[in-house]
Amino acid sequence: MSRKFNVIGLMSGTSMDGLDLAFCSFENNNKQWIFDIHQAETVPYPNEWLTSLNSARELSDEDLYELSLLYGRYLSDCVVAFIDKYELEDVDFIASHGHTIHHKPSEGITVQIGDGNVISNQTKLPVVYDFRIQDVELGGQGAPLVPVGDILLFSEYQACLNLGGFANISFDYEGSRVAFDISPINIVLNYLTRKVGRDYDFGGEMASKGQIIPALLEQLNALDYYNMPIPKSLGIEWVEMNLYPLLLKSYEVNDMLLTVVIHVSQQVSQVLNQYDIQNILVTGGGVYNTYFMDKLRAVSVSSVIVPDDIVVEFKEALIFGFMGVLRMDNRINVLKSVTGANQDHSSGKMAFPDK
Fold first, then answer.
1. Which phi and psi (to 5°) does residue 322 adopt?
2. In terms of Cα–Cα distance, which of 312, 316, 305, 206 is closest to 261?
3. Of 155, 147, 160, whose CA–CA distance to 305 is shortest?
4. Are strands 93-96 and 99-104 parallel, antiparallel or unpaired?
5. Quick one: which of 189, 210, 215, 216 has its CA closest to 200?
6. 184 vs 62: CA distance, rounded Å
7. Is 124 helix (H, G, I), strand (E, B) or coil?
8. What number of other Cβ atoms are within 10 A of residue 56's Cβ?
9. Rounded to 5 degrees, what are φ and ψ at 59?
10. CA–CA separation, 206 vs 199, rounded Å?
11. Is 217 exposed, middle or buried (0-12, 13-18, 19+ CB in 10 A)?
12. Residue 154 vs residues 35, 91, 225, 246: alpha-carbon distances, Å
């Protein structure tokens, strides 16, 4: 007999667009998972939280712990307001990705803040959280985690591509699911637009007015990461060390934007062509950069499929909600073929409200 789960999924990405909340239901009918996103919204971060999150990597362990508690309270407030706004009933639990502060899996480090016990006690709901650390402890990259949802919720597509802070892909290869970060995208594009006081390049309008910088394009395509074997993943530390130094002040912002757009479209299309991917579901905020999407379609052999807006914007919150369902049932939700861990496993800490 099937059981229906009603879950609020929370996702905060490296592009710092805000907190995504999605109230979703999941049901397993005849071994096939069915889902629905009933309500969803993105809550933009107030300036004080943008400042705190951007500077969090400089904090001591003690101060970072305190920030995690405060961020847990902030997430709780957002969840309570979300429940009240949409008059949600029968919420079984919350599944929270948290916000990544450190991600250096080669050093055994990954840190997502947003204390689950705080969230649980303030919302009076169970919480599944901290999905990445167990995988790193098992020798994995701690990322990407969404492929289990790609397999079980979006199996009609040969591959799934998410265009968030980073462009990451998931697909079946030689009998196993593989997934990896292809390249940075929005984290870099937004970094550049903020230099001229804009949060992002709407529709790629600024990039469309630029000129390619051949020397920069060559430097970007020559970065060592692109020749590394999978599994592999990217973090803000890598971007700051390897990529930002290439974005020189002497370049015009529009020219850098165009060059990054061309670079990412080349890297993504190279992967699609290399693995002969014929159709791909594309989600994430980068979908709305229509100029980038046009460039991607122009150089790729794949049929690029964009779903409805709610899936585009909230697929990751949906899948972290789903990962919470699998964790609550003690089912596998992280795949060793994807992360490089020494075993498949059921990941995520669980917190329950104090009685």
1. -65, -40
2. 206
3. 160
4. unpaired
5. 189
6. 30
7. coil
8. 19
9. -80, 155
10. 12
11. middle
12. 10, 24, 28, 37
Its pTM surpasses 0.85:
yes
Q: Which amino acid is at 2?
A: S
Q: In the 8-state DSSP scheme, what is residue 241?
A: I
Sheet holding 4-12, edge to edge: 32-43, 19-29, 4-12, 93-96, 127-129, 349-351
Q: What tens digit of pLDDT does each residue of 13-44 get?
A: 877 889 999 999 999 987 789 999 999 999 99
Chain Cα centroid distance, residue 254: 26
Residues 349 and 355: their CA atoms lie apart, in Å, by 19
**The Cα angle at residue 146 between residues 144 and 149, in degrees rounded to 5:** 150
pLDDT in tens, 248-290: 889 999 999 999 999 999 999 999 999 999 999 999 999 999 9
Residue whose pair of structure tokens reads 């390619």 in the numeric block: 212
Using CB atoms within 10 A of its CB, is residue 301 exposed (0-12), middle (13-18) or buried (19+)? Answer: exposed
- Local structure of 140: helix, strand or coil: coil
Query: Does residue 163 contact residue 286 with C-beta atoms inside 8 Å?
Result: yes
Q: Which tokens in the block code for residue 88?
A: 């949600």
Helix axes 116-123, 61-86, angle to 10 degrees: 30
**CB-facing half-sphere around the CA of 18: CA atoms within 13 A:** 16
Q: In the block, which residue shows the tokens 């529009």? A: 254
State which amino acid sits at residue 39.
Q
Place of tokens 């999905």: 131
Q: Are 140 and 346 in contact (CB under 8 A)?
A: no
pLDDT at 1: 44
Structural domains of the chain in order of their starting residue, each with its CATH number: 4-141+327-351 (3.30.420.40), 147-310 (3.30.420.40)
Q: Are strands 93-96 and 4-12 parallel, antiparallel or unpaired?
A: parallel
Residue 272, classed as helix, strand or coil, is helix
Distance CA 343, CA 178 (A): 14
Q: How far apart are CA 66 and CA 27, in angstroms?
A: 37
Question: DSSP 3-state assignment of 123?
Answer: helix
